[in-house]
Automatic annotation (TrEMBL):
<dbReference type="GO" id="GO:0051287">
    <property type="term" value="F:NAD binding"/>
</dbReference>
<feature type="domain" description="Isopropylmalate dehydrogenase-like">
    <location>
        <begin position="4"/>
        <end position="368"/>
    </location>
</feature>
<protein>
    <submittedName>
        <fullName>Isocitrate/isopropylmalate dehydrogenase family protein</fullName>
    </submittedName>
</protein>
<keyword id="KW-0479">Metal-binding</keyword>
<dbReference type="InterPro" id="IPR019818">
    <property type="entry name" value="IsoCit/isopropylmalate_DH_CS"/>
</dbReference>
<keyword id="KW-0560">Oxidoreductase</keyword>
<dbReference type="Pfam" id="PF00180">
    <property type="entry name" value="Iso_dh"/>
</dbReference>
<keyword id="KW-0464">Manganese</keyword>
<keyword id="KW-0520">NAD</keyword>
<dbReference type="InterPro" id="IPR024084">
    <property type="entry name" value="IsoPropMal-DH-like_dom"/>
</dbReference>
<dbReference type="GO" id="GO:0000287">
    <property type="term" value="F:magnesium ion binding"/>
</dbReference>
<dbReference type="GO" id="GO:0016616">
    <property type="term" value="F:oxidoreductase activity, acting on the CH-OH group of donors, NAD or NADP as acceptor"/>
</dbReference>
<dbReference type="InterPro" id="IPR050501">
    <property type="entry name" value="ICDH/IPMDH"/>
</dbReference>
């Protein structure tokens, strides 16, 4: 069996962590008897700065031949925030209609959680984040203003670069952005969440929203949730408002099984989820279109200040690689990776700085491969 898998290492630490992910997947291939052909794509800041190109229609079509893309991270301080994220990452998610953003939140043994007295069995659930609608659709505008001053200020603050702000502003300027939930869009992702709950024998699905305030869009979300829930009588259901969910994540994470959430709330909630499972260095994600081209990546960004230092934690990316293999039907291979990650973390000898160690990125990849080979 040969799998052809496009890789987009991207910016910052992306290439380093993807290198480890490839190493581990290749080792699984040896053990399970399949081959991998990696197809490299150089989307990211360097290419953008050199040629002004983000990603072309042709390349998108080409990528559409494959079932799963392996992505590192995008974002670079030399490029205005949003350009690479919107122009590449969100472009891919939208073009391939990857309507599910699957983000497991699982505390593994040997990993410290900031939540006092919680153990691995208490933090073990899955967030299904809607990935193509809500406030991410990109409809909005700015009016009556010398528009980009705020943006420039933001950049100056974020990256501490110094330049003059001599652009005219106007005090009655407005900016607005519209969020959309569609019946079909809600239905497909909520159905996915219920099917997942059934498949994984996780017998509770929690819907997240803010239907008490954003009542138009999220009442539709709720209505669809109830309709779908009726078809799954064996699964318990409930709703949490997003603010309450943030509280429960910290207070009683053991309550949750499968969570299904609109896009923006899911974005925020899964960073919180990553923290309670031990940090962004350990949090993987999958952008899934069950009938098309999906994409697997760590939740973390490109961490420019660590670029090229071989120090960041590659486990989120390696774990995303396991999700990729599971998506391709290589369940046993996926399990091998997860078990090896668990072994390495439990042992605690090889770990990167974020987990209190001083191992290199590449040493973590090597150790995971070694553990897989020992089994
Ligand atoms: C994520 C990221 C992205 C998002 C950004 C980089 C566009 O934060 O994958 O969670 O908002 O979805
Ligand atoms: Mn995010």
């Amino acid at each position: 069996m040969l799998y052809k898998i496009p890789t987009i290492p991207g910016d910052g630490v992306g290439p380093e962590v993807i290198e480890e992910g490839k190493k581990v997947i290749e080792a699984v291939g040896d053990l399970e008897g399949f081959d991998i052909e990696w197809i490299h794509y150089d989307f990211g800041a360097d290419r953008y700065l050199e040629h002004g190109e983000l990603i072309s229609e042709e390349e998108l079509k080409e990528l559409g031949q494959y079932r799963a893309i392996y992505l590192g991270a995008l974002g670079d301080p030399r490029v205005e925030p949003g350009i690479l994220e919107l122009g590449i990452l969100l472009k891919l998610r939208f073009f391939f209609d990857q309507y599910v953003n699957l983000r497991p939140v699982k505390l593994l043994e040997g990993v410290w959680t900031p939540i006092k007295d919680k153990r691995p069995e208490d933090i073990d659930f899955i967030v299904v984040r809607e990935n193509t609608e809500d406030f991410y659709i990109g409809i909005g505008g700015r009016f009556k203003g010398g528009s980009s001053k705020v943006h420039l200020e933001l950049i100056r603050e974020l990256y501490q670069v110094k330049f003059d702000l001599d652009i005219e502003t106007s005090s009655d300027e407005i900016g607005y952005q519209i969020g959309v939930i569609s019946r079909e869009g809600a239905e497909r992702v909520i159905e996915y969440a219920f099917n997942l709950a059934e498949r994984k024998k996780m017998k509770r699905v929690t819907g997240i929203d803010k239907a008490n305030v954003l009542s138009e869009m999220y009442s539709l979300w709720r209505e669809v949730f109830f309709n779908v829930a009726e078809r799954y009588p064996g699964i318990e259901t409930e709703f949490n408002f997003i603010d309450a969910a943030a509280m429960w994540f910290v207070k009683n994470p053991e309550w949750y099984r499968v969570i299904v959430t609109p896009n923006l709330f899911g974005d925020i909630l899964t960073d919180l989820g990553a923290m309670i499972q031990g940090g962004l260095g350990l949090a993987p994600g999958g952008n899934i279109n069950p009938d098309g081209t999906s994409m697997f990546e760590p939740i973390h960004g490109s961490a420019p200040k660590y670029k090229g230092k071989n120090v960041v934690n590659p486990i989120a990316t390696i774990w995303a690689g396991a999700m990729l293999l599971e998506h391709l039907g290589e369940d046993r291979g996926a399990l091998r990776i997860i078990e090896a990650i668990k072994d390495v973390l439990r042992e605690g000898k090889v770990r990167t700085y974020d987990l209190g160690g001083n191992s290199k990125t590449s040493e973590v990849g090597d150790e995971i491969v070694k553990k897989m080979r020992e089994v």
